[in-house]
């Protein structure tokens, strides 16, 4: 009988940057639940400790270390600690988030640069720092369906995410065949970043529900399956890809 690869990350070591909240934390906990050792990091010590406690609850190993993706040396320090503790990194997830809504003509240069620095340059720094020490494995960048959309007052966000998709494709080509690089493009997901905007009863929530074929916003738990797949051996021929998890929003036409 043919043996098919399992969709699992059990036994792997994963790092989730931006892993202490929302989608990133959801992925970190799902990886831990599946049997991976997981390091979930962000800028805030208390948040790192809180998520580490949840990860340990699944009976796997973790490490508590903060990291700021705007600072290359803090990513290198994180990488070196993970390598010292676990010997290797098999999966890197980049899920750092920030939101600032401003009209194009009111957007300051600083406002533009800040978003690009966190969401695009941060993914560059993290991918490069970790890839330099990964013999093989999987990198998963959390992009957004906004990469393909003209979202209101979100120009730097949309542009950064389009950049993340492009970076993902180029890195996939250069790091092949040993390290696969893919992106996940979520649609509207309820997280601490979005919970006020997408709260029940708001105008934007009504529009989201109306225009999304699945008819609602997603829970973060609905994004993790694609991350487990991309991190697993079952995705061994998938690289440079953007996986849309958007309830059909981007393909919805009249
Ligand atoms: N929610 C959605 O509807 C949605 C849709 C599409 C795509 N996405 C994408 O999914 C990703 C996660 O979003 P989310 O909604 O889960 O956001 P979230 O709940 O706000 O989580 C963002 C995480 O990033 C960390 N972070 C922020 N700045 C950082 C920095 N400079 N260095 C390191 N960590 C930093 C935060 O922790 P600290 O503040 O402690 O650093 C937090 O752990 C983002 O890339 C977002 O664009 C979200």
What are the defining features of this structure?
Short-chain dehydrogenase/reductase SDR, two-stranded parallel ribbon, 39% helix, NAD(P)-bd_dom_sf, SDR_fam, binds NADP nicotinamide-adenine-dinucleotide phosphate, KR_dom, Rossmann fold, 254 residues, 7 helices, globular, alpha/beta
Give me the secondary-structure topology.
Layout (H helix, E strand, L loop, with lengths): L12 E5 L4 H12 L3 E5 L3 H12 L15 H15 L4 E4 L14 H23 L5 E6 L12 H21 L3 E8 L2 E2 L12 H9 L6 E2 L4 H8 L10 E4 L9
Parallel strand pairs: 1-2, 1-3, 3-4, 4-5, 5-8, 6-7
Helix pairs in contact: 1-2, 1-7, 3-4, 4-5
Task: Describe the overall structure.
The chain is of the alpha/beta class. It has a single domain (about 15-245), classed as Rossmann fold. The protein has helices at about 20-35, 45-55, 70-85, 110-130, 155-175, 205-210, 225-230; strands spanning about 15, 35-40, 90-95, 135-140, 180-185, 190, 220, 240-245. α4 (about 110-130) links the parallel β3 and β4. α1 runs parallel beside α2 (about 45-55) and α1 (about 20-35) crosses α7. The chain is globular. The N and C termini lie far apart (about 45 Å). The mean pLDDT is about 95. It binds NADP nicotinamide-adenine-dinucleotide phosphate. NADP nicotinamide-adenine-dinucleotide phosphate binds near residues 22, 44, 96, 97 and 189. The site of NADP nicotinamide-adenine-dinucleotide phosphate (NAP) has 28 residues, from α1.
